[in-house]
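thought: fold this chain, then report.
action: predict
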Amino acid sequence: MFNRAKLFAGLSLLSVMAVLAGASVSFGQSGSTKDRWLHVRVINSDNKGETVRVNIPLELAENVLPTINKNHLHNGKVSIDQAHMNDVDVRALINAIRTAKDGEYVTVQGTDQDVRVAKEGGRLLVHVKDNKGSKSNKSDVDIKIPMHVIDALFSAGKDELDVVAGLHALASLGDTELVSVKSEDSTVRVWMDSKNSSD
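observation:
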């Protein structure tokens, strides 16, 4: 059974972070959350063959998230458990990445996974390819997130992510694919555009 607060928080954070994205990002004109929609589509290819489509107007998400106060989500902000940050100053790290030149920062080619972290055109890019297990268990994850969206997320106080600010920053983008996950038994796509239904 899904917990609604966790679902909203998860969808918002997915779209903003990680943060993990697919195709091209177009920095077109938009500006207003009124005509921007966040879409999530999950297609399961298993024996049930379920497809889940979620279409959320950014304006709705920005207005609803501050009303949810459960677990780590309060007033549109998610508290970060510093115990899991392993003594890393995340804000200093984000600032270093923001001011660094474009390039490929981390490439790990291993028996379990291949990982690539790069910065290109003002976006943080993360690609993870699963190498371990059978073909049906392997997956590819792509994330593309503009640095100004990351800055908005970290604009909250210490130990918090401002999800509403991150969504507001997303509204300034044109049509954007944020997250793409592909595996043998399912595909997940998170993107934003001006359409009120998914393709």
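thought: worth noting. Residues 1-31 have pLDDT under 50 and may be disordered.
final: tokens above.
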